Amino acid sequence: MFNLSAQNANQTSHIAAIDLGSNSFHMIVARWDNGQLTLLDRLREPVRLGFGLQEDLSLSEDARDRALACLERFGECLRGYPSRSVRIVGTKTLRSVKDSSQFLAEAEKRLGHPVEIISGDEEARLIYLGVANDIAPDDRNRIVMDIGGGSTEVILGKGMQPRLKESLNMGCIAITKKFFMDGKVSEKLITKALIACLQELEPVKDEFLQAGWQQVIGASGSIKAVAKVCQANGWSDGTITLDSLEKIIAIYLNHGKVDAQIAGLSEDRQPVFLGGVMVLSALFEALELKQMVAADWALREGLLFDQKGRLENHDIRQASVDALAARFHVNMDKARAVEKTALNLLSQVAPNWQLTAEDASKLLGWAARLYQVGLDIAHNDYHKHSAYIVQNVDLAGCSRAEQTQLAALVLAHRKRFPAKSFPLDNSDLVRLAILLRMAAIFHRGKIKDGLPTIAVKADGRKIKLILPAKWIEDHPLTQADLETEQRHLSDIGYDFQLLTQ
């Protein structure tokens, strides 16, 4: 999430990433020094949050308590870390919870940092980033798969770049809940579980098969657990094959229950292991895989490298914003002009409003580049179309919360301030919206003689805009727009004064 307050903008050489998965919660801490990441600590707890997702899409009390107790322990390790150095994401289960706001608020209290809900597409990108930084680089196509508790991500890419990404609604907990919750295993249940997974893969498998690959890599707990079982039983050096998966399934069928004792299988993985095996078997069958090797790194390491990129100003979100603007044929000359004016205004008021130089600048600048995307749909109320697109499109690198902030600024850039749909309690975001509105006014029409020197002063809810008297006299439409803006801002409690000199 964007950190807009300058009060929390401290620096540190340590960075941390937390992955709140449907099966396990993971935390990883690293030191960032001289452009290198050194891993310092890892924590993992099998919270099984996915088992607590009820039919009405609420979280059970038990699952909520387990999760918050874990986050309390994680939070002890994060004391003193500035927000820019910590990234915490929730995946499939938290994406699915009907109203996660209360849980997220309680989680933030225990962690001392906000939790971001990321899309399946973003989860897939981060998994690929983690795996790509773990293996030797080459120019071959590779397919990467990650079986989580609630979803499975399949990504095809080359080098550091993912090309195809899919997040599928099947995971080790999801399959366990649906087919093996009573602890029994039978030929019929195995067949049903496999068919359900194959049905989930059916709409996407052909695109992957047509693209082709030369390398198959698995990531995260379920796949690494299968690799350990293969090695412990002497079936391979840890390489996974369809034959080894069939041997595992045979062990369960002979035992008749999910609590089968298998060499190499840890006790905490046992309750969900068969569910993961069924997903992996379906992946092998649908994608015609011969073998797979397991990587050590996945989502949380991807989070670390993504955070490192942001701190080094190699932020993928910038490329995502520019790609979206190009896709919807934004007039980039105008967008850059609005961005330049908005950032000029921000630089003048940031100290008094205690806004960060970095995150506030990024959010405001990206909103300036995207506020016109709705024009590609219709001119009438285009700001509403723009906001809908920004809120709902997949923007690589952005969490749901970040896209919500961007969409709010885009929606609020013109006409009356959208008080009913804007988070007015977020004063930092309101103030960025005001700066974007002012910048948009100055670039509403084409001003042939250019803009004058614009001075702005801010003190709490009082804003003074100072312009040359002669320039205002020569531009009556801009003056009229600014006077209208005085009325709009007074509606939300801001005193906006237009002064001349």
Describe this structure in words.
One of its GO terms (molecular function) is guanosine-5'-triphosphate,3'-diphosphate diphosphatase activity. Its EC number is 3.6.1.11, 3.6.1.40. The protein has helices spanning 61-77, 92-96, 101-111, 120-132, 172-179, 187-211, 220-232, 242-255, 270-286, 299-311, 316-327, 332-353, 359-370, 382-392, 400-411, 427-442, 469-474, 476-490, and strands spanning 14-20, 25-33, 36-45, 86-90, 116-117, 141-147, 152-158, 161-168, 215-219, 240-241, 291-294, 455-459, 462-467, 495-500. By secondary structure, it is of the alpha/beta class. The chain has 3 domains: 6-118 and 302-308, Nucleotidyltransferase, domain 5 (2-Layer Sandwich); 135-295, Exopolyphosphatase. Domain 2 (Nucleotidyltransferase, domain 5), CATH 3.30.420; 315-500, Hypothetical protein af1432 (Orthogonal Bundle). The strands form 3 sheets. Strands 8-7-6-9-11-10 form a 6-stranded mixed sheet, sandwiched between helices. The protein has a 5-stranded mixed sheet with strand order 3-2-1-4-5, sandwiched between helices. Helix 1 packs parallel to helix 3 and helix 7 crosses helix 9. The chain is elongated, with a radius of gyration of 26 Å. It starts with 13 loop residues before the first strand and ends with a strand.
